[in-house]
Amino acid sequence: MFAKLLFYYFLTNLWVISTAAPLTPIKGPQTLSSTVLFEFPKGTWLENLVIRQTDGNALVTVLSAPEVLLISTTNEFRPITVATFPDAIGCLGIVELGHDVFYIVAGNWTAATGTSTLGSYSIWEIDLRNRGPKFAKTTKIVDLPGSGFLNGMTVLNPVAGILLVADSLNSAVWSVNVHTRDVAVAINDTSMAPMQYGTLPALGINGLHLLGSELYYDNTDKATLNKIPVDLNTGKATGPAVTLLQSTVTEIFPDDFTIDFEGNIWMTADLWGQLDLIPGAASTASTNASSKEDKSNTGWTAAKFGTKQEDLRRGSLYITTNGGPINYIYSNWTAGGALLRIDTVDLVL
Ligand SMILES: *[C@@H]1O[C@H](CO)[C@@H](O)[C@H](O)[C@H]1NC(C)=O
Ligand SMILES: *[C@@H]1O[C@H](CO)[C@@H](O)[C@H](O)[C@H]1NC(C)=O
Ligand SMILES: *[C@@H]1O[C@H](CO)[C@@H](O)[C@H](O)[C@H]1NC(C)=O
Ligand SMILES: *[C@@H]1O[C@H](CO)[C@@H](O)[C@H](O)[C@H]1NC(C)=O
């Protein structure tokens, strides 16, 4: 099953870039196709993913149910439910910490109302070491009673076992040590705060990823991409936050993002079902790549690069979708959540 994705590539003077470097010339428009690997029933919200280190398949969190699924990136098997979580409505951020040990965020966020149950979030471990995917061992690591709405997650310090988790409601980044189970507010900065618009839920900091000792994060309501230098042992800020990209929610709608080997940022714009490419992350140009008119695979939530040989050759980016976030209010979806693939080497910049 193939779906066409219009891929526009251009600059806009609405986007304020923090550097004084000259903007690169306009090229395009560009067209890239997306391949649907698997589409679920309408109302299935795929929220986030990691590409599993041992086999290059996708471990995907579901937000409309408290589940984590293993989805083949080559259509070799049907999706497998790897883990389910009691006392939670859905799952959000996911990381792999060493081969086959995963951590996820579980909690109570209701898509139909866009509301979060304060303090309902916890971090769980999924251990797939020496086990088939149907026999995972799941363990609760810790509850976060002070959480507002936990969302994206990234690894801060793999040696000490410290993760960072975005709190989209309480304007913060939490640190969680999965070995000692210590939890702390690592950063609380106004660049992470939400500012609700109309029917849209309050969503501040959403995705976060570490590059060196800089923590990159976006803010959905403020339509920004930011970075802040952090201490790699505590996650605490060692300097001020810098806003790299300032847009509006009618242009972009930042959900999670991933950083490629050249430092380009590929950001999923949930509401618009589009992928925004920000070349060089902290440097020169900003672009948008869109399928706003395409209702067949809308609601793009997260993206990760594949690791199989053919993925490297194609520059394959795997994308989770929810089928359109606003449709959850009215139950009138036009598509189910899906795992898509886009081959980025087809984009000639
Ligand atoms: C979260 O939702 C689950 C499932 O509905 C429920 O069992 C649990 O009590 C809720 N947790 C909180 C803290 O409200
Ligand atoms: C961050 O600071 C804001 C403003 O003071 C506060 O409302 C929020 O609860 C804080 N977040 C956390 C996780 O403590
Ligand atoms: C991309 O953004 C520009 C303005 O920043 C807007 O005019 C254009 O419609 C957007 N492209 C698509 C396809 O949404
Ligand atoms: C879903 O319902 C809402 C409210 O009636 C409407 O605004 C929206 O256009 C509908 N979406 C679709 C895809 O039918």
How would you describe this protein?
- With 349 residues, the chain is mainly β.
- The protein has one domain (2-346): Neuraminidase.
- It is 3% helix and 45% strand.
- It has two helices and 27 strands.
- It has a five-stranded antiparallel β-sheet with strand order 1-3-27-26-25. Strands 2-21-20-19-18 form a five-stranded antiparallel β-sheet, with no helix packed on it. It has a four-stranded antiparallel β-sheet with strand order 4-5-6-7, with no helix packed on it.
- A hairpin with a 4-residue loop joins strand 23 and strand 24.
- Mean pLDDT is 85; it is low at 1-29 and 282-290.
- It binds 2-acetamido-2-deoxy-beta-D-glucopyranose (4 copies).
- One 2-acetamido-2-deoxy-beta-D-glucopyranose is lined by residues 87-89, 108, 117, 120.
What's the SSE blueprint?
Blueprint: E1 2-7, E2 16-17, E3 30-39, E4 46-51, E5 58-62, E6 67-71, E7 80-84, E8 90-96, E9 101-107, E10 109-110, E11 115-116, E12 121-127, E13 137-144, E14 150-157, E15 162-167, E16 172-177, E17 183-188, E18 205-211, E19 214-219, E20 224-229, E21 242-246, E22 254-259, E23 265-269, E24 274-278, E25 300-305, H1 309-314, E26 316-321, H2 327-330, E27 338-343
Antiparallel strand pairs: 1-3, 2-21, 3-27, 4-5, 5-6, 6-7, 8-9, 9-12, 10-11, 12-13, 14-15, 15-16, 16-17, 18-19, 19-20, 20-21, 22-23, 23-24, 25-26, 26-27
